[in-house]
Amino acid sequence: GQNIDQPTEMTATEGAIVQINCTYQTSGFNGLFWYQQHAGEAPTFLSYNVLDGLEEKGRFSSFLSRSKGYSYLLLKELQMKDSASYLCAVIFTGGGNKLTFGTGTQLKVEL
Amino acid sequence: DGGITQSPKYLFRKEGQNVTLSCEQNLNHDAMYWYRQDPGQGLRLIYYSQIVNDFQKGDIAEGYSVSREKKESFPLTVTSAQKNPTAFYLCASTDTSMNQPQHFGDGTRLSIL
User: In chain B, whose CA is at the least distance from the CA of A33?
Assistant: First the structure.
């Protein structure tokens, strides 16, 4: 199968940095997305990686290693509003633009 | 204002009843998708359509049906054959240019009476 693995839960402190990891099978990989989802709301797009390396967007960065089947989302200067679920989703070849989602990582930011 | 509109926000289904969830987009996207999300779970693909008058089954299509008669609209019917329909349903759309992000509606929460 095309499993996408993420930790279920993480807790971090306001102002700190947190790294959320995602691993996937490398066969047929064609791009990876990160989404943020607050409870009961729609997922919102955060970042896209298809080449190896780091993509930076303000407080959020995303890294990809295609050979290792590994990505992470880095959140800096954490704020209480960053408490949400973070979803890793992969496009595999042959599936059009279909996304395969991981189960999401529930991040709790504490004072 | 461009976006995706799902309605209703909350929906209740009686035993043996079919219900239809609406999804409309004015983003001029060719591709549209329906996902189901259960508590603590990721999104699972029900059906998707990459062009008008064509659609394909996703990973969990049993008990659901769709139509794509117009580019803007992709309604999902939850039939009585779906024995566990209680979930959060999300509709998404995207441009079919390679690897564009999907844009999501605000979701419909379906419960059983």
Answer: B101
- Residue contact A103–B41, C-beta within 8 A: yes
CA angle A48, A50, A51 (to 5 degrees): 125
Geometric angle at alpha carbon B7, from B3 and B12, rounded to 5° = 155
Q: In angstroms, rounded to a whole number, what is the distance separating the alpha carbons of residues A78 and B79? A: 43
Q: What is the dihedral of CA B45, B51, B52, B55, to 10 degrees?
A: -40
- Please give the structure tokens belonging to residue A46: 């955060």
Looking at the partner chain, which of A45, A89, A98 has a beta carbon nearest the beta carbon of B48?
Answer: A98
B99·A43 Cβ contact <8 A: no
Q: What value does the mean pLDDT take over residues B73-91?
A: 94
pLDDT tens per residue, range B91-109: 999 988 777 899 999 999 9
Minimal Cβ distance to A101: which of B43, B105, B106: B43
